[in-house]
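Render Putative cytidyltransferase-related C-terminal region domain-containing protein in 3D.
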Amino acid sequence: MTLEDYVECILDRDRKTFYDDLECSGLEILNNKNKTPIIADFTEYSPLHNGHLFCMNEAKKQHPECLFVAIIPGLFERNGRGLPYILPRKKRAELAISLGADIAIEGPPMGVMGSGQYSLCLALLFKALNADYIPRGYISNDPKFKIILEYINKGKGVAPKPYKIISMEDKKVLLNGKLSNDDYVIVSLAKSLSKINFNYENKFIFIPRLENVSGTRIRECISNNEFNDLSDMLPKETINMIEKEIQLNHAPLHDCRLNKRLIYNANHLSREDLSNLTLIDNKTVNNIINNRPFSNVDELLDSITFGFSSHRKQRILSVLEVCIFKDEIHKYINNYPQKIKILGYKNKEVLNKFKVNLENNLKGENGKVCQ
């Protein structure tokens, strides 16, 4: 099986799962206190590097009484920038458990959502878990950004606006300018948690980002099979996992798209279907219609408009790979999470404690809250 065939199997399987989930009702949240407190950490782990491990260990050190729950983005294996992950989520979950997480569960399909949409899904998942603590790494040393973190720790809502961050309470401008992706996620998540009335006062654990760990450099080295240059950024378990998956021709996936499929879809979908795809704007639809047929992805990229997000074009490619429509995404979000999907766990004792929490706080369709 070629790497592209492997990716095709994953996307076809995930597309079926998406439509199965679409027919399920959302979980009813009872807002009961967890029997065993949890640290809920949303991280892509693509791949799991020393910065992720540092954040995990610092959170566990502060709250050793908690279960550490790693929330790992799921369906379609595309990140918030619309780019493929290096490893599929099952392997990323396996790594997280081997390096200290107690439970790994599946998060939302980030690559086919706008940033506000997947931030809302994450907030809904934190509420379903009744997260006791939420660790987040941050980058900025700007004193004004530290004020924003203080706002958030007091449970006060903040909101990202074009080139500024404001207080949701009094609309006061807290910071001018753009944030890094990691810092933007913090602000966006706080806004979404406020919107769904989840009390996050004193729940965030803000941890300064570990220096000398570059995701870009890691991906470049993996693409070039230069693993000797990664020992100072990746745990040996991560390197071993990636090398093993490469031998099986199951990695690395971050440079692999279903180019033939997305070009075929761009060339053959009707104007109506293109217009109904999630994230796609009318100008992009017109460009595609007027410029097709396309023979390669670079030609297609030239027809996709820029947005406020620098990652918009890659997200559109991900949408064209799997053809998910706007109304389907809206329905999916309205019922999210449909169930808690467990990807891995440390041992049976930990799993049972986690399930007791879920059964204490959630009601699901036919009595099922997790799988």
